[in-house]
Each structure stands twice: as C-alpha cells, then as structure tokens.
Amino acid sequence: MINILLFAGLAEQAGTQSICFDEKKTTTDDITLHLKETYHLQWIDRAMVAVNEEYRRGNSEVKSGDTVAFIPPVSGG
C-alpha cells in the first residue's frame, strides 16, 4: 500500500489529506493521473512531488510502503 498525502488546496478539493493507494508498484505519473481522474484535482500537475520526504522531478518509481506527498505552489500576500 502507498500512502498519499495532499496539502493545502489539493486536500480541500479532495476532501481528505491522506489517501491509501492499494498498489505494490507504480509511478508518480500514474498516481497523479489517478488523483486527477478520481478526485478531479485540476491543479495537481502544478504541485511539487516528494517520495519519502525527497522532492522528485519527472516520473519516479513508487513501491508499497512509500509515502508520496503532493504540495501545491504557495502564493502569499
């Protein structure tokens, strides 16, 4: 099982901060697509992605036991 964490606006849109993804092996792109389709997270492509607290760029492999966090850009004022 893969633990997915959503922050800020993404968590608000999905209605949850944590999702369990029942896969043994996948990629960050596959998870992004799943979240986009299932939770209608339109802006998830703009989020930073971290796997086990390490930021990743591009498509990365994810395996059971990993934690994937999606952190949207922050704007201040």
Summarize the entry for a quick read:
The protein is an alpha+beta fold and 77 residues long. 25% of the residues lie in helices and 35% in strands.
Any idea of the CATH class? Alpha Beta
Mean pLDDT: 93
The chain-level structural class is: alpha+beta
Low-confidence region ranges? none
Q: Please work out how many helical segments DSSP would assign.
A: 2
**CATH H-level name... which superfamily?**
Beta-grasp domain
Q: N- to C-terminal separation?
A: 38 Å
Strand content bin: 35-45%
Key structural traits:
35% strand, alpha+beta, 77 residues, 25% helix, 2 helices
Overview of the molecule:
The protein is of the alpha+beta class. The chain has a single domain (2-71), classed as Beta-grasp domain (Ubiquitin-like (UB roll), Roll), CATH 3.10.20. 25% of the residues lie in helices and 35% in strands. A hairpin with a 2-residue loop joins strand 4 and strand 5 (54-56). It starts with a strand and ends in a 6-residue tail after the last strand. Belongs to the MoaD family. Keywords: Nucleotide-binding. This is Molybdopterin synthase sulfur carrier subunit. It holds the Pfam family ThiS.
